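Section handout 9: paired folding examples.
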Amino acid sequence: MSYSRAELTQLVMPHMQNVLGDLFGGNLMAMVDQAAAIAAIRHSGGPAVTASIDRVDFREKIPVGALVTCAATVDYVGNSSMDITVEVYSEHVPTGERRHTHTAHLVFVAIDENRKPKRVPRLTPETAEEFARFERAKTHGKT
């Protein structure tokens, strides 16, 4: 499971803000989707596409000037689908304070050269955290 982890960090720039001066939700969703795509592509060994975004929990606003890190993990796999969790962290650079601001759950599907679903490798949890994520995703039947 650790091989497919992905982390994407970006600086929130003024052109990315909403009318209230914080990170626009659409920009955050694009970063979440990209981080999940990297994890899915790593796990499947090739192209993968977004099948669904099951849930996004918006916990806190993210101000312009913050660093945003999207950490993606493949938690469970079906035949061609992959259940992915993306945790979003906001970092206030001057103080180094880092907060968990959002969580998203997505499903990606691996595709072949004809854009048809293809089998993905089985997932092998190794740590206690990975086993917990695997069992939680399996129980919820997201893929």
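Moving on to protein 2 of 2.
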Amino acid sequence: MARLTKSNLPQFDVDIFQNEYLAEGAREVNAIVTVTATGGGTGAQVGSLSDGPAAAVVIMVDCSGSMDYPSAKIHAAREATAAAIDAVRDGVAFAVVAGTHEAKEVYPGSGQLAVSHPGTREEAKQSLRRLTPGGGTAIGTWLSKADQLFLSRRDISIRHGILLTDGRNEHEKPADLQRTLDRVQGHFTADCRGVGTDWEVEELRRVSSALLGTVDIVADPAGLAEDFRAMMENAMGKEVADVALRVWTPANAAVKFVKQVAPAVEDLTGRRRDTAPEEGTARSASNKGGGGRRVGDYPTGSWGDESRDYHVCIEVPSAAVGSEMLAGRISLVVPQPDGSTEVLSQGLVKAVWTDDISASTRISPQVAHYTGQADLANAIQEGMEAHRRGDVDHATSKLGKAVQLAHESGNEDTFRLLAKVVDVVDPKEGTVRFRKNVSEADSMTLETRSTKTVRVKKTP
């Protein structure tokens, strides 16, 4: 594998948004970290046949018996997989897996990955007639098969899965699926899609979250082909894998949480991996001998040309008025073949204690916005869970709060989804009434997309 350096990676920039002023005795520092990768789009050169593949993708298609009820689902799945195959770039390694209570290779079928070119793409599409429904559902076996295929090419760094299911994971215990997720996470990323309304949102979200991918619903099978094509095109735009958000904190300080907050909410706190201080960076006196416990890496997955926002909260020792400190150093790092890491960009989180009330009580607009977006996601999920339990009062209260937050933040997409589930009486006050005869598709769409956020509006 070639050495990844700043010269052959997208340009990463880190911007920190915070109010660094704290009241006397205050200990919590909040910052929004905006990471932007630009200058990619060289994928036509990456993974060429002469160099060997630099990226790989495995498409996992649910072929359980329920995919034949109605038969439009399996037909749409074949068409969608063909559309995805057409979008695989020349030189990228790929495979197709049929998933039931077990996993079977549909293409190329040799325990290996094929290398994409017009001939192999056509062969793969011809093989899709073998996607026939029958059997149960055990998603862990599909992921294990994808992992085996990816591991057959250890020279490939960017590994991405696309997983489609139409039902619940009924032929596998939750603990077994979790063990599989624990084993394969970090090996590849995966986007998950549920077709129809007989699958469980939380179950599929657990898979996508562990594998740092997306989850969405395609209620109408007719929409699968376009969705698969878009997912594959997005995967083909990834140019660097295993990027981590590295957070250094000084002595007696600790990271309270790290969350991705845009384009979707994803809590990364529990994914921390303690590591040594940053390679290739100057160490201040307070960082000497810091040890791994003061530096932690949080995985962010693969990147192309894109921008994401992260909310970092750090607890620091309380200090007197006039004190200043570096509360944290945020770095973007990527691993190297020799075990070192390349630091791509950095930003600083600061803390200054003041007795100026107007300064210490001012909330960063970015922090306030994304705190509201996280609260919006939680309110929707809690509201829908309460509705499933039959607690209409609590559900109405939570979804009313969600309507209020969506209205205040300008999250128009989520507001429209909420309006399909509740009648909005007063969006400013969050006054709503549950609609009668809400479709299962509308309820699941709202819950599935609850974590999608909007960016902070730029001021003129």
